[in-house]
Amino acid sequence: MELIPLSLLLSLSLSTILFLLFRTSTARRRNIRSPPGSIGLPLIGETFQLISAYKTENPEPFIDTRVVKYGTVFTTHVFGERTVFSADAETNRFILQNEGRLFESSYPGSIANLVGKHSLLLMRGSLHRRMHSLTMSFANSTIIKDHLLVDIDRLVRRNLDKWTGRILLMEEAKKITFELTLKQLLSIEPCEWSENLRKEYMLVIEGFFCIPLPFFSLTYRRAIQARKRVTEALHLVVRERRVEREKGVKKNDMLAALFDSDCDDDEIVDLLVSLLVAGYDTTSTTMTLAVKFLTDTPSALAELKEEHEEIRKKKGASLALEWDDYKSMPFTQCVVNETLRLSNIISGVFRRAITDVKIKDYTIPKGSKVFASLRAVHLGQENFEDARVFDPWRWQKISDPANFMPFGGGPRRCPGHELARVALSVFLHHLITRFSWIPAEDDKLVFFPTTRTQKRYPIIVQNRNVVG
Ligand code: HEM
């Protein structure tokens, strides 16, 4: 992420200032009581405070200090816009459940340009409902059980077969999740083409957190060029598959479902781009952080090992995991939950109020940007005891996980939530039953621009089944 150049911020158009001033004074005239807070310096707002806070090792310094000062719902001004932040579980649920009625999704320009205008993240109304349920129908439990699990298991094992000595876990996990997603979406097996496409994808994702002006940001310029190459490559695949389809070749993947849904090629490619983005980085980072948390908590690792060795014993010579095996991993699910809670790969979601919305004693004025922070709730001491400690056992006691929303909620709830859980569980199973490992270097969690480890988590692996 490049810091926002001062000159750029100062050159934000006069019309924006006038618009904001007009809106504020209109709100005042209408006697609206917005959530309390500070909007910082003119134009820049509190953007620099937010960026420098997230560059520390503390996961929530920006929100923590404001919650103490103003309460769990407060106003700030970041990335060129006045924004209402919510660190309150009930308010977050309300915001997410009222998608399309009181709020609509509103992503920063950089992300919107890179995922494409036909992406699920940007769709609204009935088209969004239709495409969301189509995506769900390709990632629900039945499909995973009957169809996807075999590939997940096979591709995870195939990758682990190549591991030896020092590896960068984050890189290896990214390879795995990219291969899984390509297989699910397009029935493409790993090959040189897919690895090249993945490298282009990494450039696209790097552009997500830049100012979306190619002139000001080299990273953003590179991301836009990489996106062009990605869409060209995917257009080619879509065209070839249409020809195959006309010849009667049938495939059971997301692309086949999209052909049946009357989308044109531009729409299909944007959807594919966004599905690859949504599933690839999130799941691989969660895999890496699960291993880091377990390495740092030996008692949890030992209990997890026991669970998986038990499964292995029952299966005898058969290596491939089946659905019943996945369903007999209760402690693994505790580890997955706790990793999702503590790592918060998607720290929160952006929305825009489409009308004045009353929340607590305040009104969020129509047109306001809103950020529902999932991380603030997951790390709030009032929601989880010792909230900042990795404690998978807590999930053996939690009966109502209402404050736990790593996959969002409401009509935009992540359609890949079950798929991510299965991929994580299968990955942990094969990792734990085949390898022991130690960290190769000290590495630490960082929270900006996204949650990850600073050095991509280098570890030294040793195959437990090879003697000597
Ligand atoms: C650990 C892994 C994952 C996490 C933490 C995660 C988290 C989330 C969250 C919080 C949202 C809600 C965004 C919003 O409300 O604006 C979301 C949406 C989405 N996720 Fe995931 N996700 C994960 C894995 C996946 C996978 C594997 C897929 C692949 C199918 C996927 C596909 C999507 C899509 C397409 C959306 C947009 C839904 C919409 O706007 O209707 N995600 N994800």
Written overview of the protein:
- By secondary structure, this protein is of the alpha+beta class.
- It has a single domain (6-463), classed as Orthogonal Bundle (Cytochrome p450), CATH 1.10.630.
- 53% of the residues lie in helices and 11% in strands.
- The chain contains 18 helices and twelve strands.
- It has helices at 6-10, 14-29, 47-54, 61-70, 89-97, 109-115, 125-137, 141-160, 169-186, 192-206, 218-246, 254-259, 265-296, 298-315, 323-326, 330-343, 374-378, 417-434; strands spanning 73-78, 81-86, 103-105, 165-168, 348-353, 357-359, 362-364, 369-373, 435-439, 445-446, 452-453, 458-463.
- The strands form four sheets. A five-stranded mixed β-sheet has the order 1-2-8-5-3.
- A hairpin with a 2-residue loop joins strand 6 and strand 7 (362-364).
- Helix 8 (141-160) crosses helix 9 and helix 10 packs across helix 11 (218-246).
- The two termini are 45 Å apart.
Keywords:
about 475 residues; alpha+beta; Cytochrome p450; five-stranded mixed sheet; 12 strands; about 55% helix; disordered N terminus; binds protoporphyrin IX containing FE
What is the fold's blueprint, element by element?
Blueprint: H1 6-10, H2 14-29, H3 47-54, H4 61-70, E1 73-78, E2 81-86, H5 89-97, E3 103-105, H6 109-115, H7 125-137, H8 141-160, E4 165-168, H9 169-186, H10 192-206, H11 218-246, H12 254-259, H13 265-296, H14 298-315, H15 323-326, H16 330-343, E5 348-353, E6 357-359, E7 362-364, E8 369-373, H17 374-378, H18 417-434, E9 435-439, E10 445-446, E11 452-453, E12 458-463
Parallel strand pairs: 2-8
Antiparallel strand pairs: 1-2, 3-5, 4-12, 5-8, 6-7, 9-12, 10-11
Helix pairs in contact: 6-11, 8-9, 8-18, 9-13, 10-11, 11-13, 13-16, 13-18, 14-16
